[in-house]
Every structure is written in structure tokens, then in C-alpha cells.
């Protein structure tokens, strides 16, 4: 019975990452200021660090790793440089698992205009050997391996069952305690916060 219960819990956690965007041709979203038209465009600078300022003015820093996940980082940094994430929320926060955000619809079904290749080993991309550890930043997706778009998640603890199945692309290098504070906000059983956890601004920094 204990083993069965653990299996059910694991399945529920994985399902929270699968239900994030509709499959098929991406549609234009209303949450983006200047949506990405192509991942071939470059960000406004060569920086791989992103400062995230929340509505309460608390901040944390994400450091991307383009050596491991080049297209994933390019897409993420491009969206940051365009102001795509400004005003969006962390719409799903789960104890002992992760905080997920970056959806312009705010319900787990939205994204930018672009979907990118899943840069992880089970999708024939062996280059990315990043592990899902506490503080790791990774791309959310549907069950389709090449469906990642704008949604990302931050791990609260080591989650090795995600290694090789999701495109980890960076880590929180400063301010992880700010992400931990999301857990203090009351949420429903699906992890949706009763009070919006809003990103005031995301910007590239040196």
C-alpha cells in the first residue's frame, strides 16, 4: 500500500508539469508585450543572468547555462529582454516540488508564439547533463517533447526523476529564500495561490 501511495503522488506531481500548454500550432497570446517570433533572434545583450523582481520588491537571480541548453536559454533570455514575463505570475506552487510560472494566461495553458525543441537526453539531446536539484530552473512542457514555450519551473528540492525528461537550463544563484516564500501563501489542492504571486519585472543583468 505504501509503494502504491508513493506511485500515485509521483504521478500527480508529473501531471502538474504536463498540463501547461495546448499542443499544435502556437497561438498569439495577449500577455506578451512583444512576443517572440523566432528563437533565432538574439537577446539585447550577451548576459546570461536574469534579475527577477517580485511585486513585493524582493528579488532573486537566475543564471542560465547556454553550454548545456543553447536554444532553451536563447528563447528564455529573448523573452526576458522583450519584457514578456513582466506582470505574469507563478501560477502553480507545490510543496517539496516546484514553483511554476511564465504563463500569460495564468492557468497553465498559455505560452509565447514559439515552441522550442526539448533539449534533454530522452529527446535525443545528450548535450544537456544538468540535474534537477534545489534551485534548478527548467522548462515546463506538455506530454509532447518539443512543446516548451515560455513556462518554466524552479525546483524546491532535488527531483532526479525529472532528469533527462525536462530541459533544465539554469539555476537560482541568489535569493532562493524569495522563491521559498511562495510556499507561505495559501494555495488550493492543485497548487494555485489564493493571492497572485506576481513578477513585477525580469531583466538581463551583467
Ordered list of secondary-structure elements with their pairings:
Elements: H1 2-18, E1 49-54, E2 59-64, H2 70-81, E3 90-94, E4 98-101, E5 136-139, E6 152-155, E7 168-174, H3 176-180, E8 199-205
Antiparallel strand pairs: 1-2, 1-8, 2-7, 3-4, 4-6, 5-6, 5-7
Could you describe the 3D structure shown?
This protein is of the alpha+beta class and 206 residues long. 17% of the residues lie in helices and 21% in strands. It contains three helices and eight strands; from the N terminus they run αββαβββββαβ. The protein has helices at residues 2-18, 70-81, 176-180; strands at 49-54, 59-64, 90-94, 98-101, 136-139, 152-155, 168-174, 199-205. Strands 3-4-6-5-7-2-1-8 form an eight-stranded antiparallel sheet. A hairpin with a 3-residue loop joins β3 (90-94) and β4 (98-101). The radius of gyration is 16 Å and the shape is globular. 40% of the residues are buried. Residues 18-44 have low confidence and may be disordered.
